[in-house]
Target: Gfo/Idh/MocA family oxidoreductase
Amino acid sequence: MVGGGQGAFIGAVHRKAMALDGQYELVAGALSSTPEKARVSGRELGLSEDRNHGDWQALLADELRRPRSERIDVVSIVAPNHIHFPVAQAFVEAGFHVVCDKPLVHTGAQAAELVAAVGRQGTVFGVTYNYTGYPLVRQAREMIRRGELGTIRKIVVEYNQGWLATKLEAEGNKQALWRSDPAQSGGAGALGDIGSHAENLVSTVTGLKLESLCADLTSFVPGRALDDDASMLLRFEGGARGVLVASQVNTGLENALRLRVSGTLGSLEWRQEEPNRLLHSPLDGPPRVLSRGAPWLHEAAQRATRIPPGHPEGFIEAFANVYLGVAAAIRARAKGVAPDPLEADYPDVEAGARGVRFIETVLESARSSAKWTRLAG
Amino acid sequence: MVGGGQGAFIGAVHRKAMALDGQYELVAGALSSTPEKARVSGRELGLSEDRNHGDWQALLADELRRPRSERIDVVSIVAPNHIHFPVAQAFVEAGFHVVCDKPLVHTGAQAAELVAAVGRQGTVFGVTYNYTGYPLVRQAREMIRRGELGTIRKIVVEYNQGWLATKLEAEGNKQALWRSDPAQSGGAGALGDIGSHAENLVSTVTGLKLESLCADLTSFVPGRALDDDASMLLRFEGGARGVLVASQVNTGLENALRLRVSGTLGSLEWRQEEPNRLLHSPLDGPPRVLSRGAPWLHEAAQRATRIPPGHPEGFIEAFANVYLGVAAAIRARAKGVAPDPLEADYPDVEAGARGVRFIETVLESARSSAKWTRLAG
Amino acid sequence: MVGGGQGAFIGAVHRKAMALDGQYELVAGALSSTPEKARVSGRELGLSEDRNHGDWQALLADELRRPRSERIDVVSIVAPNHIHFPVAQAFVEAGFHVVCDKPLVHTGAQAAELVAAVGRQGTVFGVTYNYTGYPLVRQAREMIRRGELGTIRKIVVEYNQGWLATKLEAEGNKQALWRSDPAQSGGAGALGDIGSHAENLVSTVTGLKLESLCADLTSFVPGRALDDDASMLLRFEGGARGVLVASQVNTGLENALRLRVSGTLGSLEWRQEEPNRLLHSPLDGPPRVLSRGAPWLHEAAQRATRIPPGHPEGFIEAFANVYLGVAAAIRARAKGVAPDPLEADYPDVEAGARGVRFIETVLESARSSAKWTRLAG
Amino acid sequence: MVGGGQGAFIGAVHRKAMALDGQYELVAGALSSTPEKARVSGRELGLSEDRNHGDWQALLADELRRPRSERIDVVSIVAPNHIHFPVAQAFVEAGFHVVCDKPLVHTGAQAAELVAAVGRQGTVFGVTYNYTGYPLVRQAREMIRRGELGTIRKIVVEYNQGWLATKLEAEGNKQALWRSDPAQSGGAGALGDIGSHAENLVSTVTGLKLESLCADLTSFVPGRALDDDASMLLRFEGGARGVLVASQVNTGLENALRLRVSGTLGSLEWRQEEPNRLLHSPLDGPPRVLSRGAPWLHEAAQRATRIPPGHPEGFIEAFANVYLGVAAAIRARAKGVAPDPLEADYPDVEAGARGVRFIETVLESARSSAKWTRLAG
Model:
């Protein structure tokens, strides 16, 4: 693991997600950009001294020194965004599998390089767009794939938080600090932090390709360098239209990620804060409440489920599903067989690159006086 | 009453709204554009023969023939949109008070004429933007007026229906027919029918002035002349941003009008389908569920309430509140006193005109390749 | 109308319910037990002086003096409970139709007398168990009648309020005063006021006959003479079991009337505070959200509906449905035809008598140390 | 671990709960009552051969053979109910800490023996009443402890499931089989399986002592030996009253465990299927939605929380909190210090024994014709 030491929220989540199903063991790390802190964090987590490193370069060098059978299988990159590219690139080029937090990298050019490297190496590369790990998100994706909603017409996705409604970064909050620092976060604030999750959710669930968009970015909190609020209109190939909202100044809201997809035959609504329910409103009958684990769900949703319906699963379980997908892909690769798509179900480096292009396009649109900005690629 | 005869949905709603509080009596009408049908409808509703007219011109002429003390106080115009302007103008110019359905008229020029006429005559003119009659919408408006949300930053309003997801107008549905006919509805479909309600809700609740917008209108159902789906970005004077969505092809949805307003001190969320609750999320405490009739609501909400909390009020009661507001204004005028603003609380001709300008601007933006189109006035 | 003058909550509700559909006109009354107050109330409501009486005896005498064609069709009794019996009996015996508030009377003997009198006169007699007027309650009843839930096994009904959590009657609150006074309310407090609604809801929806019950009544607020909290186990003929809870000391709750019925093929859940939704959970599929007005509802529910789905109806509309049912029965009787059961749908004097027997049995059980007390009849 | 091999639902849950926070490692087991199956299960879970036993006696003997430093710290008993007593007793007497599933044992006498043994040995003994591990259940408990609800008056708890609405045990369903077999489950069906959870939830949250109860047990599914439905009235020391419902034939319901507690100053409502919200309705203000992780929660709730508000935690996390509590108690004991009550927060052997007495009393009441049956002790 690279990053995720003391004080890092997301590192602990990754570790719990890895632990949940007993398929991962944390054996080596460079857990902070501050060598001292990295080592203290590693000790707390029970890393042996010889695999507890002060920086990621040392970690990589040490792993490469070891015989293949003793090396880590996969590195998990949970450091702030600006570190993703060099670390990911180095580990991919050295032949390691990678799990990397999102957004993948800062520029489309970096993303393209990474996609190419993964292609050359044939390694597994997962990006923790964790929300698509929820079983009912997979149910939604499968229903749309099978045409149960007909032709998709309209998509509204919102991810609203309130925690940055005040200038938290001025009070020394670590999470707020790096997120509002262009050097660490890239040019996008709320857009990169949560807007990219919304993009991934839409792209994953609908399978539609975004064609062009029209964005309005705002920094509401005085003195904040990056956007804390984003709204945009979306046009998809094939004619579907959409709206995406991402805001971190929606006072009082927590993680209000909500998706509504409407097609000619029905619509779906899902909310992250009550993830064990999916509302399906068909054209010709009453809305149906689909609950996680119910026997009438598609196999893709059932596979992502651990416990019976009515016993809620949550964020960590969804996160763990991404790790399970990566593990299945690694095992298949080790055996030299094609992975079972129902098992090896995770957001890959292409999804990560698509997210980076999305952010770049939004930033371009926000600066433009033209209504529509097309997505490259 | 003009319009609202057999087969008209909204006429019956107006009559129930008028009846509820015993402040209106229906005594005269021209209830359809087809004279025969107008008279049959009038008989069914118990109009006396001499006040049951075949067209509105006859109604107006007959009323003017009568001595002042026997005339109607107010005319309610519930005919399709294209009839609004001539009828409203004629009755206003003749000195009658008017309640008119929305959208008020087809063009900003007509709206301006009507505003001017009402100004000259000093009559009362209400527009049945009925959703702002809900007690908790008035609570929201009052909370914002008093600064309880701080400075407003972000507004998201959606009005989604599904009933036009198929080509209902091809099956002879009367409601669908006139709404999808540009001659009767003007240039706006879903935009005029429900988008204008969303605009009125935002303007009423926040008191903010819309500065510019960027709209995307779509006709999803093949062969439909007018938009059945609208999405737009909003910018308000003073810096608030917003999103407005209005769609009639959201399969399976009924009248999903939802408003979320977020300010520096808190946010509010209200949904029309559960109108007796308003969720208030303050910056520094848990969300509070405000229910209609609760003693801690503001007077403006209490006045709009008939029965104790926990016994739901609905659409008709909210509609009736518009009529109560108009009645209070008429009574005040009759007495020659200033109306109590808590009683004479209704959307006026200015609100109607603002709605017309909004529609015109959206249509202009939808045709434009520029990102932002400014609102006139 | 007898009772329902100034300060009476329920009188105004009855009047709005009557007005809503234009089938009733209030022409005569004795609106309070205080003659002076009765007349002031009548004047406010626009009664003509000769039909605005100081007591109900005068009202009855005056009506009988008038020729049949000028008499009232029906009297609405909305006075406190202890007045119900003499007034109802007198008007029934004089051949008038009656609408009476619940609980019908104080004793089973009085109820039996009233049932017999109505039988002899052949008049229409409605009891305003208003909650069964909600369209989705009628949908539930119809689904069970048609066997869509299979054999009913378990019923849980709760009616919880919080407004009597403190000793409001000591503060002069009129509603609290008469409800907590045995002389006016009979021997039952919360039991009679809201527990009887719960009984009616269960009996109406399931059609099951209550066989025996086991009750625990409590007066939580010190110094209160009557129960403010009731819990009981229920056994129905045929083997179904149930629980009924009625409490007026559930701090913070408003009118939380909730019904859940479970059978071999499915279950239903309905909540009065969100009356436009009925949740139907079938044995072999996902829960279905049935909304008022949706085309897949049964005719019995459709007839009770005024406006399209998604535009909420509420308490007054449900109340008005009882009045509509009574009006349909009166019209049928006037025409000498059998009433259409879908129109003449209202709780009758038998339902009222059943409610009185229920209250008597609960009071008996509460005093008994035996587990089960059987219902008479 | 004893029990929990292939096909056992709850064993996997225990293991995920143990793994989540990295404080437990599974090193030895006797995972089934069938030796063959035990060993296959152990191999699948990666137990070393010498610690993978065919029966629990072998496991215990083997552990005792090992030097203290190599022994397991704690044994987790997840076998069917009838195994609990001998295994628990043997391990306690041998000085091991124990985590045991609920209900603890079959008789009050067994429970008393176990309590005495734990007392003698001074070991840690946790019972996995997992629902009280939810952070907001701990918040509720803490609010009541601090008097924020005033004096508790009324408690309604329901645990409704639908999975046994048909005779699943006749179809070979393993979960249904042992639960409906008196030899394995004891004399209680739904009562023991889920009614005991409801009892624990009430006792834990309110701290009230149950004084007497009046129960009605039913077996609705023909041919089922044990109750599948239970309803009862409750009386608590100090005057509070309550209702407890537990049913496994509530068609279509999943794990609908719901608690409502009402006191003189406010009431609380919590539902297991949406465990991240607690509704607090104070006497003199609007209901407050308390969400897991919010800064205004009490420390007892905060300690039970892993991730920020709005990212849902679920069943496994709550289960894991019981294991964390046990681990904290074990660590404190190892250090010879008093455990921090905020850390060592878990249902202990006394709670387990109380649950057994509750079940015995309910069974006695169900057979009795007297209204009230007192709880022993």
Notes: The mean pLDDT of chain A is 95. The longest strand of chain A covers residues 152-160.
